[in-house]
Amino acid sequence: MQAVSNKLAERIGDVPTAVSAEYKPRSDGGKMKALAWFGTRDVRLIEAAIPDITDPDDVVLRVTGTTICGSDLHLYHGEIIQLQQGDILGHEFMGIVDRVGPNVKNIQVGQRVVASFQIACGECSYCKQKLSSMCDRTNSSGLQNTMYGHRDAGFFGYSHFTGGFPGGQAEYVRVPKGNVNLLPIPDSVPDEKALYLSDILPTSYHAVVDVGVKPGDVVGIWGLGPIGQCCVRFALLKGAKRVIGIDNVPARLKLAQEISGIEVINFSEHTDVVKRIQELVPGGLDVAIDCGTFHQPKTLLHKVEKALMLETDVSEIVNEMIMATRKMGSCAIIAAYAGYTNHFNIGALMEKGIRLVGCGQAPVHKYWEELLEMIVERKLDPTFILTHRVSIDEFPALYASFDKRLGGVEKVFVETRFSAPPSTGAPKLSSVAEWGEEVYTV
């Protein structure tokens, strides 16, 4: 798939952008550790050149915290097109400013900052509305333009389909348009709380806001990974009177039930999820949110069609949501979908008057200041989702264990040589090998 997509992208050609994806190596020849993609389930820690200021709006960070995201597993399985061997991965990271370009006046060397996972130009009509993920001027993928009719913003470490920008699962990272795409962090907020402003906090908050959760709503959330768990918290903050989480991973169900205090459905036990929800909520949900994944079909039909490349994505969760939601209710998709699906229940969508919202990639810039204020005021503590801390050297094993969803892994803080010690109450450093042989084995 990668060879075909890269060849097709080459034929279509790139779209001109306001930024360059490739960086200039430092003149002293300095090297850094970075996590790179080489094939399906083949990620490796490599020695890469440390980036220098390439464009005048650049900022270079010493990475003090990075992580792995559920959407990174789509890359791990080779399901996102236009991946190329040696691509540096990672779109959630923060750090200390190491160098700034001559045009950058609002960010200083030595400052602690978090980066948005998307790269916004700050000047187009979308950026002026703080819809940073929809920036028109930073993604060069002509293939995405052909498939979708338009392009998202460029993203860090997420293939050439999103611009080909080297990511932050590394010791250093170049941030194009650093004067726009970095948020200063006060000293009172430790890295373990600030890091997730780069993606999962704005993403989950965007889903809840975009679909319009309001006081008194009954909300169903499919997928209790980090995004789903945060959606639970935000739905409750918005006044939902009842939240039901759907998953089949015991540790995730336990976290949602015991820490967030919601009802849960294990779909391995209740295989007919719609029937179970209708038993629990006669009349149906007010709101349903898809925080799941397209790459693990449940039914044999979709497994066969995916294996034969007759579809790229699976419609099962969306169909369940439509069936389980009341007439004139709302469904939202914040889970990452990439292409085409079969057997979508468009009839039920129309006849029930369901509002189906494709949330899109979350516009981080729209929300991250509000969310940082919640953290500062102690209305929100993101560390409830943080289960482990590992060294950057553990990245290949971490991908393998995170993919298997074993060992109670939910969200992981990955430290580099520039990281501060763990803050009070945060997980201490451990090794993936300590979590159990079945977790560690690639």
Automatic annotation (TrEMBL):
Q: What are the entry keywords?
A: Metal-binding, Oxidoreductase, Zinc
Read off the Pfam families from this record: ADH_N, ADH_zinc_N
What's the cofactor? Answer: Zn(2+)
- UniProt keyword annotation of Glycoprotein present: no
Question: What InterPro entries is this protein classified in?
Answer: ADH-like_C (IPR013149), ADH-like_N (IPR013154), ADH_Zn_CS (IPR002328), GroES-like_sf (IPR011032), NAD(P)-bd_dom_sf (IPR036291)
PROSITE patterns according to UniProt: ADH_ZINC (PS00059)
Organism domain of life: Eukaryota
Instruction: List each copy of the Alcohol dehydrogenase-like C-terminal domain by range.
Output: 226-292
An annotated Gene Ontology molecular function: zinc ion binding
Q: Which residues form the Alcohol dehydrogenase-like N-terminal domain?
A: 56-186
Q: SUPFAM superfamilies this protein is in?
A: GroES-like, NAD(P)-binding Rossmann-fold domains
UniProt family annotation: Belongs to the zinc-containing alcohol dehydrogenase family.
By what name is this protein known? Chaperonin 10-like protein
Recite the lineage of the species. Answer: Eukaryota, Fungi, Dikarya, Basidiomycota, Agaricomycotina
